[in-house]
Design goal:
284 residues; alpha/beta; TIM Barrel; two-stranded antiparallel ribbon; disordered N terminus
Length: 284
């Protein structure tokens, strides 16, 4: 065989081997499954984390964790405005008005007329989708100012994001049955059968699942919650509740835990809870 041909063939074999070697990592990477997109329906960008999690770091974290959108609130509302007005290219920001200026307002906002002024002033910015997260326990929800807040939201087609116990939740609906409520934490430990009763009674109630106790046991969905998700796939949302810096530090593990149990549901159910319900509710 001609030695020139042999030399050419060896060069070609070497070239093909090099190309395959370079392509191998790309092929391996392409084979990895994409992260299930998640809409974070309970996100706080309060003033405390800003020195540790400036805007560029926060947005990078969302990209890394496959977060396609956030329900943004903050104390005060500066953090929400910063997120929304940054208009990040790859993040959908749904801003809610938080009725707090300082942490002490959590305990007194329901009787403080100046908070109503805060809500109305913020609303004039023209881009808010809801009010909250706000905290209510028991009969603290029965004040005239809380009723005014509920009516204000209904009249303007706004959602309410309520951190409320069972009694307060029922009082909110008694103020105005047309209220649309995202129930933060789904009552923390309210029994699944009672959650079912609320979903039946209040068609404009959606359950957000941050800090929600009892969904899994040993990493597996409990039969009660699996049945609940499959029966009401349109009524649940996920959230991180980044109310302290430690929740930002553990953001990745929070989202990993969600994806772990979502993978135990039918694909269409998992996608609704992960992000499609938020798209249906908040897209304008």
């Amino acid at each position: 065989m001609n030695r020139h041909f042999i030399s050419w063939r060896r060069r070609m074999v070497a070239l093909v081997s090099s190309v395959l070697a370079l392509a191998a990592p790309v092929a391996t990477q392409a084979a990895e499954p994409a992260l299930l997109p998640i809409f974070d329906a309970h996100l706080h960008y309060n003033w405390e984390p800003v020195p540790y999690y400036p805007m560029d770091k926060v947005l990078a974290l969302f990209r890394q964790q496959g977060i396609m959108g956030i329900l943004a609130t903050s104390r005060p509302n500066d953090g929400t405005r910063a997120l929304y007005e940054a208009k990040p290219r790859d993040l959908w920001v749904v801003p809610f008005i938080r009725p707090y200026r300082i942490r002490a307002d959590i305990q007194t906002w329901m009787d403080d007329a100046s908070i109503q002024d805060l809500i109305e002033t913020e609303y004039k910015r023209g881009y808010y989708v809801g009010i909250g997260e706000f905290h209510l326990s028991g009969k603290a929800a029965a004040t005239k100012l809380v009723k005014h807040t509920v009516d204000f939201a209904v009249e303007r087609n706004l959602y309410l994001h309520a951190h409320a116990d069972d009694e307060a939740l029922e009082i909110l609906y008694s103020h105005n049955p047309k209220a649309r409520i995202v129930w933060a934490h789904t009552g923390f430990s309210t029994a699944p059968e009672k959650v079912t009763a609320y979903l039946e009674r209040y068609p404009a109630l959606w359950c957000e699942l941050s800090y929600r106790y009892g969904i899994t046991s040993g990493g597996k969905l409990t039969p009660e919650w699996k049945a609940l998700f499959e029966r009401y796939p349109d009524r649940f949302l996920l959230g991180s509740d980044t109310w302290i810096n430690e929740r930002w530090d553990s953001y990745g593990s929070t989202m990993s835990d969600y994806r772990s149990w979502l993978a135990q549901l039918p694909k269409d159910v998992a996608e609704k809870i992960a992000f499609r319900n938020a798209e249906r509710l908040f897209k304008r």
